[in-house]
Specification:
Radius of gyration: 21 Å
Number of domains: 1
Strand content: over 45%
Shape: globular
Distance between the termini: 54 Å
Largest sheet: 14 strands, antiparallel, barrel
Helix content: 10-25%
Structural class: mainly beta
Length: 349
């Protein structure tokens, strides 16, 4: 286990050195959006949630487990300014070869009015982004799992198009009593393969090194979750812009604030097996989007999950600005249960 973790860290360092040489500030940022309602309700980033839930695979491919076999999950979020995004995934058990999943992540930015340089309207245009997610995971014993996702990317903005490639790598470690789960993941390592127009530089994808932990209380229906993200961009300074457009470090950022800007915190309460209540907090979102003098729940998240055996429903609401809430919906179906139910009904006839 120690040798595996050391190799993983060395691999991260090499990747960081390689991609740091590439031009650009980052492309295909839709990959960072939280498609999972469960994750959204727990602060927006969680990579160590241990349940067999396919909607979590974009957070960490190592969460792929045999309990997800023959399940289908669809996720959708009603974002700001009429933008909609989502994710759909199907999981299959490959036996001794591990687990596999195929999914697609998308963003629809809606319709826009086109106009020339004089302001004369010339029509309408659309914009959208897509990423295919091909995921593989394998358990090594009952306590350790590794996984990887390969994500071909297509972006369409008016008449401009770009293709790219990205990958996720993750590991998960459970304690023997199954109360604590530790995880580490590198998300969205990649680059453009073709640019939006000729002559432009190939940009890298903004990637993130993440470490997470969940812990369930032994004698209470309560679980705490925390994920540290963007550890490869540690302590990125908050900046202020002066009237001349010059950025400088913002005053008053404490060491605690610098640490909190990398944390996503959440809690789940499940008084019974059928329903789960969730709460979360994202300090960076709260700090960056909060407007002084206005009340609101910016950075706070909440949601619930309903388990109907063959179907699981998750819902989340996240505060982004005063009166502006983003809603996430996720529905997961165990297709094996529907198949067996149909077969039983047919046999009884």
């Amino acid at each position: 286990m120690k040798r595996t973790l050391l190799s993983f860290f060395l691999f991260v360092i090499l990747l960081q050195s390689s991609f740091a040489q590439m031009a650009g500030e980052g492309v295909f940022n839709f990959l960072q959006m939280t498609t999972s309602a469960r994750t959204a309700a727990l602060g927006g980033v969680q990579i160590a949630l241990p349940d067999a839930d396919p909607e979590l695979l974009l957070q960490n491919p190592a969460l792929l487990s045999p309990g997800m076999n023959n399940t289908l999950s669809v996720n959708y979020a009603n974002y700001l300014a009429g933008i909609g995004f989502g994710y759909g995934v199907y999981v299959k058990d490959l036996g001794k070869y591990g687990m596999a999943a195929i999914g697609i992540q998308f963003v629809d930015y809606g319709q826009f009015v086109a106009a020339d340089e004089t302001g004369v309207k010339t029509g309408n245009f659309s914009a959208s982004d897509y990423a295919l997610a091909l995921t593989w995971g394998k358990s090594f014993g009952s306590l350790f799992t590794a996984g990887a996702s390969l994500k071909p990317i297509y972006s369409h903005l008016e008449n401009y198009q770009s293709f790219g490639i990205a990958a996720d790598l993750g590991i998960v470690r459970h304690t023997r009593n199954q109360l604590t789960t530790l995880a580490m993941c590198i998300r969205n390592i990649g680059t453009q393969l073709t640019t939006y127009y000729d002559g432009s530089s190939h940009e890298r994808v903004n990637w993130s090194l993440e470490m997470g932990c969940t812990h369930k209380l032994k004698f209470a229906p309560f679980r705490l979750s925390a994920t540290a993200y963007d550890l490869n961009k540690w302590n990125a300074e908050v900046t202020d812009t002066d009237p001349n457009g010059i950025n400088s470090p913002a005053s008053g950022q404490s060491a605690l604030s610098a640490v909190m800007r990398h944390l996503s915190l959440g809690a789940e309460i499940f008084p019974e097996n059928r329903i789960t209540f969730r709460l979360g907090y994202n300090y960076r979102r709260h700090n960056d989007l909060f407007v002084t003098g206005q009340s609101g729940l910016v950075g706070f998240t909440t949601g619930l999950g309903i388990n109907l055996s063959a179907v699981h429903f998750n819902y989340a609401v996240s505060g982004y600005y005063q009166g502006g809430m983003v809603q996430n919906f996720s529905l997961t179906a165990d297709l094996a249960r529907f198949t067996s139910s149909h077969s039983t009904t047919k046999d009884s006839k």
